[in-house]
């Protein structure tokens, strides 16, 4: 990759959300904002190799996108109506509540996560508009067809426009009800960065994990007493702390039991542990923990162990038992089975996993978990078939390399 291509890729990672948010604020139209931003990046691909990378890529992209948006509005046959529609949304936006954080991307997230939209739609729209993920990447994250995901995002933008949903921060009384949808969005954005689903992207997208953490910190500043915000931040920090140890020099995923724990980020772990302790104190005072707090506690157990052999698996399983009551999803059941395998053996765990076949047949991690359990039971032929299926379904290049090596070790 040339220096200019690398600069364009970096600019897309760093500036996409800023450009879309700035245009949304100016024009009050997500379609115009998204298309103009895309056109600006296309122009950069055409011009930067000849003109050079501008000193401030973000400003260049925003200025170019604004011009593209204005050109598009002028080209519309009903441009006067379009102007009025855009201006109406912009002018009628209520003033920000006192003390609101001045961050366009955070406003954009709350717009995309409006209660008028279904939860899955909120997540998908935010991944597209704020995270800059492509429709195929989002479709893979949701395990749905690309055409269905494209239609979902298109309908969401149309609904925001028709309902004149304002581009603004929610009021203080609306924040708690609105924040759960935002947390779900940020967690999926983080997950896409933690283990990117697309074969044509970096296996770990630090830009997405960093952005998810940054925005979660902002929401924590808004809601410092919200346990789930603190829990999600702790969870992200404890996972992000392991990032540099998760991919080998050859580009292969490194499993938790093989990671160099000395390479983990001690500062992030310490911060994550502090947040978990805060929530444990709240739980001791009678405040029941939520999903993200329990997941953070599970990761705190893992990051407290100096060696994989020191992991307190009974504590991990107890936390998963608690989590299953809050979130009885098949993916949580799958992760719980991994802890069961460490305590009760792979045969007991495999029986649990096999009961999830119908729900998780299209999920690569299901087949990867099954392959490992079968491997440990000495059932090599069945293990190989499960690895083959996991490799077929996995989009992440580092994970595919890891699964391929594990399969080939079976002989």
UniProtKB/TrEMBL annotation:
Pfam families: DUF6596, Sigma70_r2, Sigma70_r4_2. Residues 109-160 form the RNA polymerase sigma factor 70 region 4 type domain. Gene3D superfamilies: 1.10.1740.10, Tetratricopeptide repeat domain, Winged helix-like DNA-binding domain superfamily/Winged helix DNA-binding domain. Keywords: Sigma factor, Transcription, Transcription regulation. One of its GO terms (molecular function) is sigma factor activity. GO terms for biological process: DNA-templated transcription initiation. Coiled coil: none annotated. It comes from Jiangella aurantiaca. InterPro entries: DUF6596 (IPR046531), RNA_pol_sigma70_r2 (IPR007627), RNA_pol_sigma70_r4_t2 (IPR013249), RNA_pol_sigma_r2 (IPR013325), RNA_pol_sigma_r3/r4-like (IPR013324), TPR-like_helical_dom_sf (IPR011990), WH-like_DNA-bd_sf (IPR036388). Residues 178-278 form the DUF6596 domain. The lineage of its organism: Bacteria, Bacillati, Actinomycetota, Actinomycetes, Jiangellales. Belongs to the sigma-70 factor family. ECF subfamily. This is RNA polymerase sigma factor. Residues 18-78 form the RNA polymerase sigma-70 region domain. The keyword Transferase does not apply. PANTHER family: BLL6612 PROTEIN, BLL6612 PROTEIN-RELATED.
């Amino acid at each position: 990759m040339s220096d200019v291509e690398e600069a364009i890729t970096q600019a897309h990672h760093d500036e996409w959300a800023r450009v879309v948010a700035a245009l949304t604020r100016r024009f009050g139209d997500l379609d115009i904002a998204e298309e103009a931003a895309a056109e600006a990046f296309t122009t950069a691909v055409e011009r930067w190799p000849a003109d050079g990378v501008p000193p401030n890529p973000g400003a260049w992209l925003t200025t170019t996108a604004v011009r593209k948006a204005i050109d598009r509005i002028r080209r519309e046959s009903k441009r006067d109506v379009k102007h009025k529609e855009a201006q109406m949304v912009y002018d009628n936006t209520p003033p920000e509540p006192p003390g609101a954080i001045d961050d366009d991307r955070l406003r954009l997230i709350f717009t995309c996560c409006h209660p008028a939209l279904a939860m899955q739609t909120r997540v998908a729209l935010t991944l597209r508009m704020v995270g800059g993920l492509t429709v195929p990447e989002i479709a893979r994250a949701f395990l749905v067809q690309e055409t269905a995901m494209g239609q979902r995002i298109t309908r969401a933008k149309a609904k925001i426009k028709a309902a004149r949903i304002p581009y603004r921060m929610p009021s203080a009384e609306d924040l708690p009800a609105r924040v759960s949808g935002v947390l779900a969005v940020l967690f999926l954005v983080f997950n896409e960065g933690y283990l990117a689903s697309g074969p044509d992207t970096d296996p770990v997208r630090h830009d997405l994990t960093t952005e998810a953490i940054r925005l979660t910190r902002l929401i924590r500043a808004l809601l410092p007493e919200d346990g789930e915000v603190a829990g999600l931040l702790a969870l992200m920090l404890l996972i992000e702390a392991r990032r540099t140890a998760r991919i080998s020099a050859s580009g292969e995923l490194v499993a938790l039991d093989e990671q160099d724990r000395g390479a983990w980020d001690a500062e992030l772990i310490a911060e994550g542990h502090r947040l978990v302790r805060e929530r444990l104190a709240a739980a001791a005072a009678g405040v029941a923990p939520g999903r993200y707090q329990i997941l953070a506690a599970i990761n705190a157990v893992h990051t407290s162990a100096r060696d994989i052999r020191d992991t307190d698996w009974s504590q991990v399983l107890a936390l998963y038992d608690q989590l299953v009551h809050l979130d009885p999803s098949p993916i949580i059941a799958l992760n719980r089975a991994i802890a069961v395998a460490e305590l009760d053996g792979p045969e007991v765990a495999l029986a649990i996993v096999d009961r999830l076949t119908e729900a998780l047949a299209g999920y690569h991690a299901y087949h990867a978990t099954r392959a490992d359990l079968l491997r440990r039971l000495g059932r090599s032929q069945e293990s190989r078939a499960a690895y083959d299926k996991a490799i077929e379904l996995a989009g992440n290049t580092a994970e595919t390399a890891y699964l391929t090596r594990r399969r080939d070790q079976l002989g």
